[in-house]
Structures are given as C-alpha cells and as structure tokens.
Amino acid sequence: MTSLAKFNLIPEVDSFLKSSPFAGFVGGKDFPSAKGTVIPTTDPGSGEKIGEIHDLSSAEIDGAVEIANQAFPQWSALSQKERGALLLRLADAVEAKKAIIGQIEALEAGKIESQAQGDVQNFVDTLRYFVKLGDGVSTRTKLDIPGHEAWTYKTPWGVCGFIFPWNFPFLLIGWGISPALVAGNTVVIKPAEDTSLSAIYLARLAKEVGIPDGVINVVTGRGATAGAALSSNPKIKRMSFTGSPEVGRLVAEACGKNLIPVKLELGGKGAAVVFDDVDVAGTAEKLVGAITFHTGQVCCDATRWFIHAKIFDSFVEHCKGLLAKVKIGHQLDPTSQMGPVVNPKQHARVLGYQEKGQATGAKCLFGGGPATVTGLHGNYVKPALLAGSPDNVAAREEIFGPVAYLVKFDTEAEAIALANDTDYGLANSVWTKDKDRANRVAEAMEAGNSWINAHNVFAHGVPYGGIKKSGLGGGVLSIETLNDYYRTTSVVRPN
Ligand code: NAD
Q1: How far apart are CA 362 and CA 345, in angstroms?
Q2: Among 101, 122, 109, which residue's Cα sits nearest to residue 295?
Q3: What is the DSSP string of 104-138?
Q4: Which residue in 267, 268, 307 sits closest to 287, CA to CA?
Q5: Which of 48, 296, 331, 336 is 20 to 30 A from 401, alpha carbon to alpha carbon?
Q6: C-alpha span between 142 and 122 (Å, rounded)
C-alpha cells in the first residue's frame, strides 16, 4: 500500500494516474515517444512514484511543432468571437474540474491542495480576462499621416513555444498561453519534467470541449533535449520561457540564432523594506505568510528582509512565534500549512544554502534544517531566518525555499541602496504607514514590480515582469501581453 492511500484521492484523479505512462498530447491525440523511454514523476510529500511521462526526442518535438504549424491557418482564420467562445468553453470546463486538476497539481508539485485549487481558478480567470480583452482589440488602426492613407494591421505570429517551471505549473500555463491563443496563435507547451500531468490533463480537456486539434499541444521530456529542441525550432515564431536565469540564457541564445522574439520570466531575490512605524505583529504575519507560501518556491518572494533597527528585535520575536506554529505536512493533508519542496535536488539546495550561509558568517535566528513528517519520506524542510552581512551568499543568491535573510537599516536611503544591491529585479515591497515615503521607496526600488504594505499581489491588468537577471521581454498579465502575441504590418498608400 502506498502512503497516498491515506489521503482522499478523488476517483477521477486515481483513474487518471492509473493511465500512466503519460504521453505528450499533440494534434488532438496522445503523442508517445517512439523509443518508449520514460521519466518517473513523484509525489514530493511521500517520495513515492505516482506515474511516468514519455521522454520525447528532439525529432519528436520538431514533429509536434509541425502539427501546431498545420493547425495555425484554421485557428487564426476564426473570428475573435468564435475563438473567444471556444476558449470560454475551455475556461468553464477547467473550472468544473477544479478539484480534480487541483489535486493532480497538488500531488506532483507538493502544493497545499487548497492553494493548488486557487491556481486552477487563477488559470480560469486569466483565460476569461484575455478573451474579454481580445473582444475589444481592433486589428486595424488608421494612422493620421498627412499626404498618406496609412494604417497598421495586426495578425498572430504562428506557432508559439512555451517552457514552464515546476513551481506554479497550471497557473503559469494560463498566464502564458491565454493571450497567445486569444490572438490566434497555436501553442506548444513543454512543462517541467517533475510537473507535466496537469498540462496533459488540460490538453485532453481542450480536445473534449472542441478546441481544434493542434491548437493546444503538450510535449513531455527533459529540458536539455525536449526544451532545447523547442526553443531552437525555426518554425517557432515566438518563444516564452519561465524558469531559472541560467536556462533562460540558453533559451534566449537559441532564439537569437533564429532571430525569434523571446520573453523570459526568471528568478528573483525580492526585498521587503520594513520601516519602524508599521504594525509589527501584522507585518510579521504577512511576511511569514509570504516566505512559507508554497514552501518559499515562489519567484517573486520577499527573501531579503530589511528591517528598521528600532523594531528589529521585536519583529524577529513575532516572526519566530509565528514560524514555530506553521504545521508542516503532506500537501493533501487538510491540516498542513506548509508542504514539501518539489524534489530531493531542491531539498539539498535549500539546506545547502543554509549551511553555506552560516559557514560564511550568517547567524541562524530561527529554524532551518530538514523537517520530518511521521510515516512519510518526503522532501520536507523547516522554515529559517538568517541574519548578517548583505553580502552573504544566502542574501545574494536565489535559494527558492522558506528562508528569509534579515538585515537592519537606519535610514530610507540606506534601505533603498540595500534593496537595489542585487543582480535580480523582479518584485519588492515597502511597509510603512507614511504614504509619501511608501510611494517614494516603491518607485526607487529597481525591479519590475513594487508592492506597498503587501507582498505577492497579482491582479489581471497590472503588468508583471522582471528586469536585470529576473526577466526580459515585457512580462505578463496585461494588455501589452496580448499585443505581444500579434505582429504588426504597416500599410501605406501615398495620396
Ligand atoms: P529551470 O530553468 O531549471 O527549468 C525550467 C524549464 O526549463 C523546465 O521545463 C525545464 O525542463 C526546461 N529546461 C531545462 N533545461 C533546458 C534547456 N537547456 N533548454 C530549454 N529548456 C530547458 O527552472 P525550475 O527549477 O523549473 O524553476 C525554478 C526557477 O523558475 C526559479 O529561478 C524561479 O524563480 C523561476 N520562476 C520565475 C517565474 C517568473 O514569473 N518570473 C515564475 C516561476 C518560476
């Protein structure tokens, strides 16, 4: 009997898992590896295998892109209304299956089940948001140019490639593919090796609701083969990559060789700047919530906490009290507040940074090290608070776990300088009751996103993207993102 038998598996999830090994899904049908090679997929909470995915070869990825290319003329020829109606049907179907997809997502990503369901709802909301935006898009814009009759004309690009990480598999698919599909492009999705199942479920569901074959395709496999083949395929007309800066560079290089536009959504080392006029207990609660949310595996997390010297000690005491109460457990256990990290490699990475940080002078204020959950051999870690020099390796590099690094400051200028002294530029937050100071600091911090008295805030319509080592190419979630998925032709007739 596996450990999973302890939890309440939805019968449809159980039968879905029994259909392993999972092939990709391309052109409206299963797309297996001809060689039959597979990669195991594991429940991070128990360490037990829950299925296998097919490990597609580079040539097979090229075949999938060709199928998506053949589907493009028909999909792009539909009117905005026709495409929108089909996509809304998909949004409705995903919403109806929220519990099932949420559980699949929770199981393979190690995400607390209620949070995984929230991610599925976010997918639905994103798709509906872009369909609505698409309704208002005018593909022809008249230009008022003396002596000329001129206009611009917008048309979709063709096949768009998407490579995703394992931390928010389903939500990020929604952020990525929704604008591309609304604009009339077809898509090939390469999910992470650890978390491919929810993407496969989505592609099958798209077929059921009548999205034409070849419009939404999922290819499975390893990054170095399947991912590399997708990003270097010359028939891909636009590429989007979400993941680490190291792999982002490789994807950008491959796209550069083909002169293909690429959007990169990469890692982060976000700051939270906390002034001495805050409600200390309330702010500590929100930042502890941020660092433990999805076990700290969140690109935009606040992992560097700059705390005004006057409140430093009391802030730390509040955080310790809150962190001591966080219940670590299996992601399907409804009493758990923090689940495992995604795989043993990530487990070793989080613990390794704690060790390296302390070996080079950081002080551990609270927690740290591995956590045990009775009866389970999952990848559990304890949340940790480190403190010390802002130059410590744990303060500089992305750990991607529930670890915050604390540094004291005295002046506003010092806090801004500390927040900006990083290679990353994704998201920061400022915490103060002083509105003017909040606005000043929010605008002075160098990143794609600044939040005031909150962290991890997302709203459809507010652009989200990174600068420096955190991203390139414009970000997601706004009208600009939809426009990215059209290419523009200008047409001019001299009078
Ligand atoms: P990763 O870069 O290791 O992998 C991401 C994806 O790239 C996976 O699908 C992988 O198979 C694929 N890949 C690996 N090698 C490849 C190659 N040579 N060519 C093409 N594709 C390849 O990242 P990860 O460990 O899965 O995710 C964690 C990282 O993602 C963190 O740095 C995190 O901050 C970042 N992230 C950023 C955002 C954002 O919106 N900015 C969102 C989520 C995660």
Answers
A1: 23
A2: 109
A3: HHHHHHT--HHHHHHHHHHHHHHHHHHHHHHHT--
A4: 307
A5: 48
A6: 35
What letters, b where the CB count within 10 A reaches 16 and e where it falls short, cover 251-264?
Answer: bbebbeeeebebbb
Q: Which residues contact 131 (CB under 8 A, 6 or more apart)?
A: 84, 87, 88, 91, 178, 182
What are the C-alpha distances in Å from 302 to residues 272, 286, 288, 403?
Answer: 6, 10, 10, 9
Q: Which tokens sit at 406?
A: 């604390």
Going by the DSSP 8-state scheme, the letter that residue 278 receives in this structure is S
13 contacts 201 by C-beta, under 8 angstroms: no
Cα separation of 102 and 96, whole Å? 11
User: pLDDT digit string (tens) for 404-421?
Assistant: 999 999 999 999 999 999
Give the list of residues 6+ apart from residue 134 with CB closer than 8 angstroms, or none.
Answer: 80, 83, 84, 182, 183, 482
Return all residues near 163 (Cβ < 8 A) that are at least 6 apart.
190, 223, 227, 230, 231, 239, 240, 241, 242, 243, 251
Q: CA distances (Å), 221 to each of 53, 252, 271, 442, in order?
A: 7, 20, 35, 41
**Cβ atoms within 10 Å, residue 426:** 27
Catalytic residue from among 160, 255, 299, 319: 299
Catalytic-labelled residue, pool 265, 397, 398, 412: 265
Cα 318 to Cα 480: distance, rounded to the nearest angstrom: 41
Mutational test site, ligand 1, from 53, 190, 241, 247, max ligand atoms within 8 Å of CB: 247
Give this prediction's pTM. Answer: 0.97
CB contact set of 257 (below 8 Å; sequence gap of 6+): 232
Q: What is the pLDDT of residue 7?
A: 84
Q: Which residue has the tokens 């949420």?
A: 102
Q: For residues 86 and 80, is the Cβ–Cβ distance under 8 A? A: no
Which stretches of the chain score pLDDT less than 70?
1-2
Coil, helix or strand at residue 20: coil
Are 246 and 267 contacting, i.e. CB atoms less than 8 angstroms apart? no
| C-alpha–C-alpha distance, residues 278 and 291, integer Å | 19
For residue 63, what are its two tokens? Answer: 């075949």
Pocket lined around ligand 1, Cβ cut-off 6 Å: 163-168, 190, 192-193, 223-224, 227-228, 231, 242-244, 247, 250-251, 265-268, 299, 398, 400, 426, 466, 471
- Whole-angstrom CA distances from 357 to 360, 381, 397 are 5, 16, 10
- At position 364, the amino acid (one-letter code) is C
CA distance 442 to 223: 36
248 Cα–ligand 1 center, Å: 7
Residues in the chain: 495
